[in-house]
């Protein structure tokens, strides 16, 4: 730890790292600059690769890759640019107190425990030694196994904080597979809107083979291809799922798409669940899986265990609403099992 730490502060640790940032459209515009001049200058001067996710999303992912010193230089330029924007916005403003610069990192949930430390000791140490405010989100970002880590303070405090976070991330690599957070377009249909979902959206969500990483001790109520759904909306989703009867022909494992009846397009979705967690999904004598089938209206098939494999394949078939609710309930079961809440 000490050798790595000292090398870090000297900027001599030549390890390639990738840091992901979550930004709003306005912030991204500021980083890109007119005709892409700002981001071009940042890339050239820092030596880091800076990629910005495509799409007309309210949020975008900015990925910074390179040796640690290049990453720190890129972060420094981003933080200074944001401070410049804050100063510019205050010139004609009556506000006297200057808001801090704020950056949001996207970090695999499996690394957040090391970042927080035992009883919050590590995060407290980072706050005290850098003067930056650091907050780790309790919940995972929708459809991912990543959490947002918000850093705010002066540009200098932010750089020092990022350096310390990099040390932690290098010493505690992510465990298991990471499902990266991908922001959804503003126009993405929410399934409550009269039950109509565009076919291209269904295809996109149905075609993804999601690997469930070992769930972390945080409720991960996520739904593939949709937004995370807070508890009050569960009843709406349930009602909608019940309007669409499950797909019936059992002999057909991959149903035709988008289905002959345009009002209830049917698709299949596959999940991979670790063997040691499959029991909490099935329940005693199949009680839990039957409950999930009844509540969601989806067909759920769990493949037999294959020799040498640590995972089981789960196939969910039904309308998008059926599938979404089934996934929600499966994720809720997994997260309650991991957090020790048992029966949800």
The count of strands amounts to 10
* Termini gap: 40 Å
> What general outline do the C-alpha atoms trace?
elongated
Structural class: alpha+beta
Strand order of the largest sheet: 2-3-1-4-6-5
| Residues in helices, as a percent range | 40-55%
Q: What is the helix tally? A: 12
* Low-pLDDT residue intervals, each spanning 5 or more residues: 1-12, 187-232, 245-263
Please state roughly what percent of the residues sit in beta strands, choosing from under 5%, 5-15%, 15-25%, 25-35%, 35-45% or over 45%.
Answer: 15-25%
Can you tag this structure with a few keywords?
single chain; alpha+beta; 6-stranded antiparallel sheet; 4-stranded mixed sheet; 12 helices; 10 strands; 19% strand
Explain what this protein looks like in three dimensions:
The protein has 344 residues and is an alpha+beta fold. It contains twelve helices and ten strands. The protein has helices at 2-10, 25-32, 37-46, 68-90, 109-116, 121-130, 155-171, 199-207, 234-243, 275-282, 287-296, 320-338; strands at 16-24, 49-52, 59-67, 101-108, 133-136, 146-153, 210-211, 267-274, 299-302, 311-318. It has a six-stranded antiparallel sheet. The longest helix has 23 residues, at 68-90. It is elongated and about 65 Å long.
């Amino acid at each position: 730890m000490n050798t790595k730490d000292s090398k870090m502060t000297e900027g001599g640790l030549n390890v390639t790292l990738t840091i992901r940032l979550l930004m709003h459209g306005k912030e991204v515009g500021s980083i890109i600059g007119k005709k892409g001049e700002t981001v071009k200058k940042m890339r050239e001067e820092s030596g880091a690769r800076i990629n910005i996710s495509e799409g007309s999303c309210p949020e975008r992912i900015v990925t910074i890759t390179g040796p640690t010193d290049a990453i720190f230089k890129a972060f420094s330029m981003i933080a200074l640019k944001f401070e410049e924007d804050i100063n510019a916005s205050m010139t004609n403003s009556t506000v006297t107190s200057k808001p801090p610069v704020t950056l949001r990192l996207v970090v695999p949930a499996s690394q957040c425990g090391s970042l927080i430390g035992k009883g919050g000791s590590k995060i407290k140490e980072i706050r005290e030694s850098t003067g930056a405010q650091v907050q780790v989100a309790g919940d995972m970002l929708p459809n991912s196994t990543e959490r947002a880590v918000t850093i705010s303070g002066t540009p200098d405090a932010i750089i020092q904080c990022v350096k310390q976070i990099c040390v932690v991330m290098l010493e505690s690599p992510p465990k298991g597979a990471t499902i990266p957070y991908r922001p959804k377009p503003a126009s993405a249909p929410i399934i409550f809107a009269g039950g109509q979902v565009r076919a291209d959206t269904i295809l996109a969500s149905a075609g993804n083979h999601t690997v469930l990483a070992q769930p972390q001790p945080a409720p991960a109520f996520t739904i593939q291809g949709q937004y995370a759904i807070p508890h009050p909306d569960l009843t709406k989703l349930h009602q909608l799922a019940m309007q669409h009867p499950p797909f019936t022909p059992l002999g057909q494992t991959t149903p035709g798409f988008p289905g002959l009846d345009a009002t209830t397009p049917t698709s299949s979705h596959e999940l991979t669940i670790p063997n040691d967690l499959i029991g909490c999904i099935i329940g005693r004598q199949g009680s839990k899986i039957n409950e999930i089938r009844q509540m969601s209206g989806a067909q759920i098939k769990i493949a037999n265990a294959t020799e040498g494999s640590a995972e089981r394949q789960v196939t969910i078939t039904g309308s998008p609403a059926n599938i979404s609710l089934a996934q929600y309930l499966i994720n809720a079961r997994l997260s309650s099992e991991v957090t020790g809440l048992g029966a949800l």
